[in-house]
Amino acid sequence: MTETPALDQADDVGDAAPNWRTMTYEVFNPDHSVGVACGRDGEIVGLHITDDARDNGDAWLAAEIVRLARLAHQKSRVGLRAEMEFNGTRPYTIDSFDLPTESAYRAMEAAEFGTAS
């Protein structure tokens, strides 16, 4: 996964915890012509569109952005799961939110792109 964690000042134990509020979750299509970034709350915070992607037409580009936005949103939900686990939330509580695991997300991405990575 491509998250961009910003680290807080280490606590007394010496462990640095990710700054969950500034995490960014990015997803790119296989040829890296389109990418979508979501913040912690699943809100789109960035788009990457190459000139080649613009040449494919508006309908293709719109569909690609929506497809990647859906995946980026799910990736942010994986991050929320990780945050809850890090904070010591009970597994049954996390499961009640129906948050995907990292392996479930990877399966979604593989199914979407038709690749096994």
What characteristics describe this protein?
single chain; 117 residues; alpha+beta; Ybab, Chain: A; 3-stranded antiparallel β-sheet; 13% strand
Which secondary structure elements does this structure contain, and how are they paired or packed?
Elements: E1 25-28, E2 34-38, E3 44-49, H1 51-54, H2 58-86, H3 91-96, H4 102-113
Antiparallel strand pairs: 1-2, 2-3
Report on the structure:
It contains four helices and three strands; from the N terminus they run E-E-E-H-H-H-H. With 117 residues, the chain is α+β, with helices and mostly antiparallel strands. It has a three-stranded antiparallel β-sheet. The termini are close together. Residues 4-14 have low confidence and may be disordered.
Which segments are poorly predicted (pLDDT under 50) over 5 or more consecutive residues? 4-14
What is the distance, rounded to the nearest whole angstrom, between the alpha carbons of the first and last residues?
11 Å
Would you report the number of β strands? 3
Pattern of helices and strands: EEEHHHH
Describe what is shown at a glance.
By secondary structure, this protein is α+β, with helices and mostly antiparallel strands.
